[in-house]
Structures
1.
Amino acid sequence: MINTVSITDLKQNTADVVKRVKITGKSVLIIQRSEPSAVLVDPNYYEILEKSLEDLEDLKVIEERKEESTVSSKQVAKKLGL
């Protein structure tokens, strides 16, 4: 289960909340007016998320281009006069 903290508690104990995220590596959900407002995550976890998102976007492009026609390197070389 994700840890939660109110926005008021975050304001009053920012250093402690950040320290908890750093030590445990677990995300903290920030609650404002009884609604989720933001998520505080460990920088390493954020990097993993960003890399994963980039990989998924690359896979989507690859999948979309699977049916496109291709040109061999020999055809390209011939066209370029190499």
Note: Residues 2 and 25 are 11 Å apart (CA to CA).
2.
Amino acid sequence: MPSLLFNYIYLALFFPLAFIIEFYSGFLKYKLHPLNIMGRIALNIEKRLYTFSDKIISGIFFNVITILVISALFSAACFAIFYISPPLFYIFSLYILASFLSAGGLRHEALKIYKMLKTGDINGARENLPSLAGRDSKNLNPPEISRAVVESVSENTGDGIGSVAFYFTLGGIAGLMISKHCLIAEFLQVYFIIFLGVLSAVIYKTANLLDSIVGYKNKKYEKFGKFSARLDDALNFVPFRITALFMMLSIFILSIALNNYKNKSALLSFIKFRKNHPSPNGGQLESVTAGALNIKLGGVNYYSGVESRRPVIGFENYNQPDAESIIETIRIMEVSSIIIALVYTAALLMIVFHT
């Protein structure tokens, strides 16, 4: 059994380590990735519940059952692994949390499209865009491709980094409170903090995944996926707004070294355009990026051939995004991610050592 000091050191390093691991390995894709396994479980449950006549009720059951099944499987795996070896439990938990983050994956995919745009490979950029944005891409021009990448990286800074950190920290605090209330031995409290922290991230990421599977306003999922979309919106409501503040802080930091980031414009754009989005959350982050880079986001997209008109995010004198906007957005995402990792870790540690 590791010493108490080792446990606290590991807790302090846990989220930053998960971030670093994903950042340098996020480009890897493999069939047994935790999100792929979760997706297969969800699709199998969907097949059984979609046949129910009341699509709204069956959609609610789909979410509840899928979250319970995945949470139970994760919990059982944790207890079994902890019984075998506590250090192995740390490694397993770290791997699961890292698999939920997306800074490295976003950077890899966005840079791939940036390089294609810079070399004039427009068809290649169109073909690779679906890995980032779920819109029709075959007829997009370079500014539209750049806009899609900027929007996707901005929004995924929220659900791929900020929200995961938020729910890990929230679960960790709950684990601390429960362990103290139940008088769990101090050397076991850190295990419980990490377990409930990662379990909380599992629950959040499952709900987020279900929205990406069925949360569409089309004929098949308009009713069945309604609860999934609403649940994802609700879970992201608070963390996205916190992430927007971290993004503005990252823009302030970047503006000190680079002249192409506008602090005041980011704030003004956030105030005016944060609600110009179909979801209650996406505009919170896209408006910050639009202001920081003085570019227009939103507008017309196509999904499976169906036109979707979104309000424009950005002032009249703003420009259309270009390939360089992708690089600038990646920088915002990277600095924001580092701030998120450090601040949430600090907040958890402060609560642990002052409770």
Note: The radius of gyration is 21 Å.
3.
Amino acid sequence: MLMRIALAAVIAVTAVLAPVVPGSGHDASAQQYAPGPEKVYFSPTGQYLEGEFLEFWWEYGGMPVFGYPVSPEFEQDGMTVQYFERAVLEKHPDNPPEWQILLRRLGADSITDELRNSEPFERRGEPEVGRYFPETGHSIQFGFRDHWEKWGGIRIFGFPMSTEFVENDFTVQYFERAIFEYHPDHSPEWRILQPLIGAKAADQDGVDREPRAHDGETPEYHPNLWRQPPPKTIYLTFDDGPHGTWTPQILDLLGQYDARATFFVLGSAANSHPGLIRRMQREGHTIANHSYNHASMAGMSYSQFQWQIRATENAIRNAGGQPAPCLRPPYGAMDGNTRSFARSMGYDIVMWDIDPQDWRQPGAGTIANHVVNRARDGSIVLLHDGGSSRAQTVSATAQILSRLDAQGYQFGALCQ
């Protein structure tokens, strides 16, 4: 039966070699990555991959679809070819540009007479679900269809040659240029794999698989070679303002880093400092609701709650700002009605996960260290620009911006 003994042996060897394994979190969506190197070395197999074959390998699925290269490029049957664990790439220079690099038809080549005459390979009528191909009389459904479409469809894998069926304890489906296996215990990116038919073909064809020495200059393979590190975002929020002394200094600091922040303002303070509300709006910050006069919302009636919110909205609008539909209850105080009251008025309640208690004035360095040491992507930081003296908060904000900027953080505004 097809590949029973030889393929099992190849799988066992490769499992030992592979440093990138199911569960590694590799996201092979090329659109999320930056242009990569022109040449890469794969130390587990001692082979290089470069140029058009490298671009094709990465763009159409990389490691999960093709596996490691197991040979160098070389000329075979008048074509430039390279063998991979799960496929063989061929260069067809006389084809249209988008069809010049193709997978060899290993899926069709792997169909034995016994398989061809079996029930899964009989032509079928169009099913109720899935995508049907009259050219071969077969369809693709569910996860196999999603995988087939995601990584290039007919151009990459060819038409389906069978229905799904069980072989070697896996759910499989044969295509002209590949075979799909379903591995339900793997992480999502690695659940659908091609068996190691490329490595098997290399052995059958007597291809030179001798490892090449690393030249010391070519980068070794890692998916992050293509990845620009995703920006980490932290959300600085300021309560109780605006204040005529502290808020302008904080806005100045934010501007130096092209940073955005969220200001949970008091309606009474907005009435007193309309120019600062206009500046927040102009500079791209979120202006959110912190009640009109810093009243605890625990125990409030709905009419009291509604007045606090609407009065603050009106103060922000009258000052020239656009109130965001986000609310932070003063003191973080809520009861069982607070969230339902907020929802009924179209508001989300936004709390925090980093609280340096700057209102205690423990020292600017203490405030900054508390924030920086706990910063994570998506963290929401509670600070204050109103109330009593916020000189320490201003100084701490300068340190926070400088230190987290150096760590690659960007500073985002909530509720936008």
Note: The longest helix spans residues 302-318.
4.
Amino acid sequence: MGQGREPRVNKKTFEPEDPMELVGVSFEQEPDEEALDEMACSIVEEYMRIGWTGENILRLFHNPAFKLTHNILQQRGESYVRGLVDSVDRVRGELARKVKDSL
């Protein structure tokens, strides 16, 4: 942003039925290990699909403002999250090679 310029502010009004509006939810009970693993894998895969690097994703898990990812890190540990990021990245790379080879 240039010096002296005001930041752009989104003037869109809130619409309760907006499909693009982020909505946080809570669980009635804590997810078991299998559900936690599925959520963690889905989160990592989703961020990789939009182009985030492994290091960016790890920072997301370390940020306490993102409760779900931060709780996963706290419960499962750094090595679990790093392993998950590496695993998802490896699988995506293998799939990309297969698609490229089939063309």
Note: The radius of gyration is 18 Å.
